[in-house]
Amino acid sequence: MKILVLHGPNLNMLGTREPEIYGSMTLGDINTTLMELGKEFGADLKCFQSNHEGALIDALQDAKTWANGVLFNPGGYTHTSVALRDTITALGIPVVEVHLSNVYAREEFRHHSMISAVCRGKIVGFGWRSYTLALRVLAEILE
Ligand code: DQA
After folding, report:
1. pTM for the structure as a whole
2. Tens-place pLDDT, residues 17-41
């Protein structure tokens, strides 16, 4: 079972970025936690972060050639990117949308996601645990 864990803009700043909203774990901590958990399911994870929309699109397109599923936190692009939505639509493998914060308890512009309708499902609001929950459910779907 091969899974891409994809993180969008500003998630490289986790740990110091608004810790009251996003928590104090760094992106490295989250990736390490996911890789450890992945071993329990026999899942092989590749983790990638980019601040650039095109690089995220490239990573998703590439995942079509090797991955069985994707965990994706598109950061701020969640609310704006038709291009990322189009890529997910074209993928043909399950994508689980992930958010650390409860986007519905925040500014109104965060209530709408461009990608939710084309994702298999989404998990929001549990901090780093949103990722571990998403990995558990994705692994179960892929089994
Ligand atoms: C986020 C929520 C987005 O609204 C925000 O732009 C982010 C992080 C989250 O994980 O809670 O960068 O995706």
Report:
1. 0.97
2. 999 999 999 999 999 999 999 999 9
Nearest to 127 by CA among 30, 34, 28: 30
99 CA → ligand 1 middle, Å: 6
Which atom from ligand 1 is nearest to the alpha carbon of 22? 11
75 Cβ closer than 6 Å to some ligand 1 atom: yes
Query: Residues in the chain with pLDDT < 70?
Result: none
Q: 103 CB less than 6 Å from ligand 1?
A: yes
101 lines ligand 1 (CB under 6 A): yes
3-state secondary structure of 121: strand
Told to judge if 22 belongs to the known catalytic residues of this protein, a careful annotator would answer yes
Which token pair is 4?
């891409």
CATH (residue range 2-142): 3.40.50.9100
77 catalytic? Reply is no
Q: Which amino acid is at 39?
A: K
Give how far Cα 70 sits from Cα of 21, 50, 58, 110, Å. Answer: 24, 15, 13, 22
